[in-house]
Design brief:
Layout (H helix, E strand, L loop, with lengths): L8 E3 L4 E4 L7 E6 L4 H15 L7 E2 L6 E11 L10 E4 L12 E5 L1 H18 L3 E12 L1 H7 L7 E2 L5 E11 L2 H15 L8 E5 L5 H8 L5 E8 L2 E6 L2 E7 L7 H9 L3 E9 L2 E6 L7
Length: 291
């Protein structure tokens, strides 16, 4: 595969805020593709990419013998997902037309969302642009005699010519190691939203008296924006003019790095939070107290 950059950047060709595939910790993340319309959209995407010059990109994957067709996909946060509001959809890029839902063909697995999901959602929320990454499918050349003489069914195939055909399996996402992804996400976000505290890791605190009930009258969104303010040495979370919680000081000072960051920004910053099992859970960039 071609060498990719080691930082997140806006890719003019696809219109995506594009996450690079880390060369130092490269690994491939699987995608759950459901039967039905999603699977149809997936095959239409792969075959459209191949028909528009993608076959020229077929190559050997670095360090392995697999033959692959490199792709670029969009990663779409799906807070409307009833099963998991932190879900991330995998879809064709906006250049393929239609809405994010029209282009949807799969989901990232939950086991990968634990470490990678926060940074991907952060990029989408902070930049307001579609986010994407490099991906690939493994391809293999089909001997036409297999089907004619043996009746082998390879399913949807890529037709390079009348006699050359390829089968393909296993859409996989090329994403950086989670620590690298978080570092790159923070660095990129600083250029577009310097006052934003990225929602990477969640920590919780008690609601201020009556705040949870009042917030429910103002928004039903599972993930809602908040303003962080430093006042009299405390780190406070507000929604508009409503005080939601005092985050610092506390018995578990996971917010002390956030306090320092808000002070750097002049005493005010924006972030995101959720209602979490009777507490307010605020998403911040660091999970460890200052030493």
């Amino acid at each position: 595969m071609k060498t990719v950059h080691d930082s997140i950047a806006l890719d003019q060709a696809s219109g995506l805020v594009l996450i690079p595939a880390s060369q130092r910790h490269e690994f491939a993340v699987g995608v759950s593709i459901w039967d039905g319309p999603a699977e149809d959209a997936y095959h239409a995407f792969v075959q459209q990419e191949a028909a528009s010059g993608g076959l020229d990109r077929i190559c050997r994957k670095s360090g392995r013998g697999d033959t692959i067709l490199p792709l670029t996909v969009q990663l779409v946060p799906r807070p409307d997902n009833d099963y998991n509001p932190l879900a991330i959809s995998v879809a064709a890029p906006p250049s393929h037309g239609g809405t994010d839902h029209d282009r949807h063909f799969g989901y990232m697995y939950e086991r990968n969302l634990v470490s990678l999901g926060g940074a991907i959602r952060s990029l989408a929320y902070v930049t307001g642009r579609p986010v994407g990454c490099h991906a690939y499918v493994e391809v293999y050349r089909i001997d036409p005699r297999e089907h004619q003489e043996c009746g082998v069914d390879h399913g949807p195939v890529i037709a390079a010519s009348r006699t050359v055909r390829f089968g393909y399996v296993g859409l996989r996402l090329l994403l950086p190691w989670w620590e690298d992804l978080q570092r790159m996400a923070v660095t990129y976000a600083r250029t577009v939203a310097p006052d934003q505290i990225l929602p990477l890791i969640g920590h919780w605190a008690p609601w201020a008296p009556g705040a949870r009930q009042e917030l429910a009258k103002r928004t039903q969104a599972p993930l809602f924006p908040i303003t962080l303010r430093v006042e009299n040495g405390q780190l406070l979370a507000y929604h508009q003019d409503l005080l939601l919680a005092c985050l610092w000081p506390s018995g578990r000072d996971f917010f002390d790095r956030t306090l320092a960051r808000v002070r750097e920004l002049g005493g005010t910053a924006t972030a995101y939070a959720v209602d979490y099992e009777g507490s307010i859970k605020v998403y911040v960039e660091d999970s460890s107290p200052q030493s």
